[in-house]
Amino acid sequence: MSINYEYYKIFYYAAKYKNFTQAASALGSSQPNVTRIMKLLETELNCKLFVREPRGIELTDEGKRLYAHVKAAVIRLEHVQEELSVRMPGTGTAVIGATETALHLFLLDALHEFKEAYPKIRIKIQNHTTPEILKNLAFGRLDFAVLTTPFELQKSFVSSELLTFREILVTGTRYANLAEGTWQIEQLKDYPWVGLSKETATYEHYKQFFSERQIEMEPDMEAMTSDLLIPLIRNNFGIGFVPEMLAHPLLQRQILVHVPLACDLPERKICLVFDKDRARNPVSVELQKYLKKYILYTDKR
Fold this sequence. Notes:
Number of helices: 10
Strand content: 15-25%
CATH superfamily of the largest domain: Periplasmic binding protein-like II
Protein name: HTH lysR-type domain-containing protein
Pfam family, one: HTH_1
Shape: elongated
Oligomer: single chain
Family: Belongs to the LysR transcriptional regulatory family.
Helix content: 40-55%
GO cellular component, one term: cytosol
Structural class: alpha/beta
Number of strands: 12
Number of domains: 3
Domain HTH lysR-type: 9-60
Strand order of the largest sheet: 4-3-5-12-6
CATH topology of the largest domain: D-Maltodextrin-Binding Protein, domain 2
C-alpha cells in the first residue's frame, strides 16, 4: 500500500480536536481541505473513521484504533525532530503567550535580562487574556504560556508555579477617606468599582470571591486589560483590586490610596504552561529554564 504520511498527520489533529475547523487552524489549512483529505483517507483504508455529532465529530472504533497508533508515531517523530533540530546556543525563536499581570510583575524584567545574555534569540510575545492564550497554546501557536490563575487546563497541558502574589484594594484621592479604619467588603458595595471584563480570569476570580460572600457585584467601569486598571483608579473612576507589587510605588507617592479590608484576599499565582503532547522547541525549553532560575535567584517570590 502506498502511504501518504501527510494524510495521517491531518488525521492526527482532526482526531485530537474532534473538530475539523480546529484541526485546520492548528495546521494552517482550511476546513474544506481537512474534510476532503479525511474522505480520501477513509477511501484508501476502506473504512469509516469519523461520525458526525451535534457538537463536532467522534471517532469510530476503527478511528480510535488508528488514532492510538498515529498519536504514538507523531509524538515519537516530533521528539526525534526536536533532537535533530537543536541549534547552536544563542540562536532561534521562541513564541510565548503572557497575561498583562505576568508581564508587569516579572516577565518584562526577566526577558530583558535574557535578551542581554542571548541577543540573537528572537522572542515573540502574544499578549491576551488567559482563556485566549490557552486556546492559542492548544492550537500550537505558542511554545509555552505564562499565565495568571485561575485557569483550567486540558489533559496534555503541564503547569508549574513561578511565583505567588497578592492583590490589595486601592482607590484614587477622591475616596481617600477609605484609608481610615478597616472595611468589611459588604460596606463598600455602593462605591463605584473598576474591574476587568468578563473575558478575563481575574473577573472569574473575583466573581467567585464576591459570590462566597453572597454579594452581587458588577464593575461600574470595565477594562479589557489589567494595564488599564491603575490609570482608571488613579483618575477616580472607582475602587479596585490591583497587585500589591504594582500599587506600591504609587501608594508611596500618594497617587493611590490603600483601602484596608477586614478579610484577606485570596492568593494568586503566575504559572508556566506547556503542551507535553507537542514537540518542544529547544530555544523555548532553555527560556523556560531561564525564567525558573530568574524567579529562584531574585526576590520576586
